[in-house]
Design brief:
The complex is a heterodimer of chains A (68) and B (148). Helices cover 0% and strands 63% of the residues of chain A. Chain A has 68 residues and is mainly beta. Chain A starts with a strand and ends with a strand. Chain B has a single domain, classed as Sandwich (Jelly Rolls), CATH 2.60.120. The chains are: A mainly beta (68), B alpha+beta (148). Chains A and B meet through strand 1, strand 2, strand 4 and strand 5 of A and strand 5 and helix 5 of B.
Chain lengths: 68, 148
């Protein structure tokens, strides 16, 4: 049984509109996420609604990567 | 593109049997887009449901016909559906959807074919309509959290 994580991404401090996408692994705080070529860092992860079968429903807050 | 493993990861089809999933794959038509290409245009008639298989699409909303600054509402990636509102309510497209990335791949299902399948197989019809309601609910929750 393969788990599917359906994730609602909201980007803080950016003009990016956010995204909804299925991923294979649960995101974690500090992870880097590529949304169509733009890379962000995970600030917060929580369960949006209870899981159903193989599907998990998460909300993730992202922030832009600090300039290097 | 091998469709069954892709569609198994789409919430819309969660709970249907392998035979039912195979029937769905027979309705799918694959389309590829380059970055910026419009897939559906706000206000036009909607006759198809779409499933994002690769890449991202951007949902853009205009507040009027000549809106100089249409608003990007959300990007949808792998496993997400769009075009479902027109499928359910037969209204015009509620937003413009365009590809964000080169090589964006979607599967299109015609409303007439989709409705026929749901009407001839009530188990499948109940499951996908329940899942479609769940998907719309998830999108509303996302918009609330995004403040859009």
């Amino acid at each position: 049984m393969t788990e599917v994580f359906k994730v609602s991404y909201v980007v803080r401090g950016s003009d990016h509109p956010g995204a909804i996408v299925n991923v294979d692994e649960r995101p974690g705080v500090g992870d880097r996420v590529d949304l169509g070529g733009r890379v962000f860092t995970v600030l917060e992860v929580f369960e949006l609604i209870p899981p159903r079968g193989e599907f998990h429903f998460l909300h993730v807050t992202l922030q832009t990567e600090p300039a290097k | 593109m091998e469709l069954v493993p892709i569609l198994k990861g789409v919430e819309l089809f969660d709970g249907i049997t392998p035979e039912e999933l195979a029937a769905v794959t027979r309705l799918c038509q694959e389309r590829r887009y380059r970055s910026g290409e419009v897939i559906t245009a706000q206000g036009e008639p909607g006759e198809e449901l779409f499933i994002v298989c690769e890449g991202f699409v951007e949902v853009v909303l205009s507040r009027s016909q000549n809106d100089p600054s249409p608003r990007a509402m959300v990007n949808l990636g792998r496993g997400q559906i769009f075009g479902e509102m027109a499928l359910v309510d037969h209204g015009p497209r509620s937003a413009t959807v365009r590809a964000v990335t080169d090589g964006t791949v979607v599967q299109a299902i015609r409303r007439q074919d989709f409705n026929r399948l749901c009407e001839t197989n009530h188990h499948l019809g109940f499951i996908v309509m329940r899942n479609m309601a769940s998907d719309l609910s998830f999108k509303v929750r996302h918009y609330h959290l995004a403040g859009r």
